[in-house]
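Retro notes (design track)

What went well: tokenization of the new backbones is finally stable.
What didn't: we kept losing track of which sequence belonged to which structure.
Fix going forward: every design gets posted as structure first, then sequence, in one message. First example under the new rule, 233 residues:
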């Protein structure tokens, strides 16, 4: 794939941020390319296949780390810890910390509607970056990246310092203020059956407090609740 000077400069800037130089620039170019950009330009592969691989690599790295670090925990507790680490929220936090949205290739429509800040896009792209590093440098390089940029998330989760049940938190906060008419509403389903995305909104009475998008209705509700918490705090 031919990469022009502007794309090379974009990749080089991103490499400095993450501290990794790609031998094969095509890997990171594909990881940074959203389907909307690919559809408009007709010559770039986009990052959905990389997301699939990156998700698996991330799961193995975190599972291995927890298995070695939490030797007294049973399988069920290890599974809960991993779920709290390997989630859209954590991946979005990593993406935010490395300014991933600034380096992504997005279509004009996606760009205009805030795609560079969209949690689902950033989380998926983070998985794609992990895959690109894995393909380019091998498992140890991918592991180093994950532990470097997710280290604080992993340690906070192990200590129980990360709160993930935003729905319960929001409900308790609103009820403490005398608000009991809390509702969730599915406003959109999109994508093919094998890769559905759900958009939920949460509100009280006639007011919408937040909107969230996730891979399941439950995840979308949690992210909507998180948005609601930010609005009312």
């Amino acid at each position: 794939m031919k990469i022009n000077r502007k794309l090379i400069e974009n990749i080089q800037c991103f490499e400095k941020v993450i501290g990794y130089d790609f031998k094969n620039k095509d890997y990171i170019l594909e990881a940074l390319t959203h389907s909307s950009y690919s559809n408009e330009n007709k010559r770039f592969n986009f990052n959905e296949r990389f997301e699939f691989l990156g998700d698996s690599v991330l799961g193995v790295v975190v599972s291995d780390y927890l298995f070695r670090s939490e030797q007294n925990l049973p399988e069920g507790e290890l599974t809960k810890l991993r779920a709290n680490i390997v989630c859209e929220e954590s991946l979005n936090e990593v993406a935010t910390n490395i300014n991933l949205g600034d380096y992504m290739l997005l279509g004009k429509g996606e760009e205009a509607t805030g795609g560079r800040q969209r949690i689902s896009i950033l989380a998926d792209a983070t998985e794609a970056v992990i895959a690109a590093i894995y393909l380019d440098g091998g498992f140890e390089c991918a592991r180093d990246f994950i532990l470097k940029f997710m280290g604080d998330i992993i340690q906070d989760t192990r200590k129980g310092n990360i709160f993930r049940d935003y729905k319960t938190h929001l409900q308790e906060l609103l009820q403490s203020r005398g608000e009991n008419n809390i509702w969730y509403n599915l406003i959109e389903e999109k994508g093919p059956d094998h890769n559905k995305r759900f958009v939920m909104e949460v509100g009280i009475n006639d007011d919408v407090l937040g909107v969230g998008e996730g891979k399941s209705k439950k995840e979308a509700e949690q992210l909507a609740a998180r948005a609601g918490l930010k609005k009312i705090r």
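Added context from the reviewer: The chain has a mean pLDDT of 90.
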